[in-house]
Fold:
Amino acid sequence: MNAPLYEVGAFGDTASLGFALVLGIAFGWFLERGGMGNANKLAGQFYLTDLAVFKVMFSAIVTTLLGVFWLSELGWLDLPLVFVPPTFAIPQLLGGVVFGLGFVMGGLCPGTSCVSASTGKTDGLMVMAGMLFGVFAFNEMFPLVERIYRSTPMGSITLPELLDIPFGVAVFVVVAVALAGFRAAEWFEARA
Amino acid sequence: MSPYLAGVGIGMVLLAAFVIMGRGLGASGAFSSAVAAGVSTVAPERARTLEPYAAYMGDERRGPLVDWLVLEILGVTIGGALSALFAGRLRRGIERGPRTTPRARLAYAFGGGTIMGFGAKLARGCTSGQALTGGALLSVGSWIFIVAAFAAGYAFSPLFRRQWT
Structure:
């Protein structure tokens, strides 16, 4: 097998939109099944009463990471053709802080607000409306924030590249940290 | 469903996106497309010239809404609704803390959404495009975002304790 299929020309743009819809349906399904459409549950993450957000997010990351590693080792996935979001250290640090504030205030993140809204929750719809307004505000203010936005560009760089360690070692460390995190999460929930 | 199992499911979907498309999942990008679509109907010149709009104007003939992430997020709303429907959880309501009025909850939701929208633009992505997708590819900036977002969530959580507990 030669993948990514789209990147090697297995199908065109119209088909890619069909895959977007199907992958989105599966994504939304598992988000809802994991309880991620519920703002109270998500907010529990920040009061250490319900750590489902951490569990869902890190079991997803570990699953994908192991899949990417082995498919690439076996030569089935051409990893350099997979788009790695480029790093801009300072805006991603500041953006992360602002995002975290909005997350604990709104109780949902952008993707989960769509699940919350489509399962009938008005608060999810309001988070979506806020998102639109926040994006609009950022865009209108763009000339003011442009310098920060473009600062500290580092290109598409990964942790193993930055630390100069083998990919497999980085995968092992992330999996080990996630497993320790799951144990800690169960401990916090038992205590809450 | 156990949150671990749901996470493995999401991980398989994300892996499938990498294998099929060579790109991951996202959410905030679809909001950028929607805003670009809105502004382009009211102020087409501004949408063409100001970069954060122009970057999401898409194909000139098909418009900003015929876009990979817009279709994916449309799928997310359908998939979420189907899951809730089959589980008997599809009903109207407002999720809020025990001491929070519906009005206050909706105000917090709009405010939180606004702040997140701004932060996601500055960080070039949100919990889907940065934390999940970039995190699973071990992108340096994505891990900066993950640590910063969770640290800030905990740091600011006392301000909203009354709202949630």
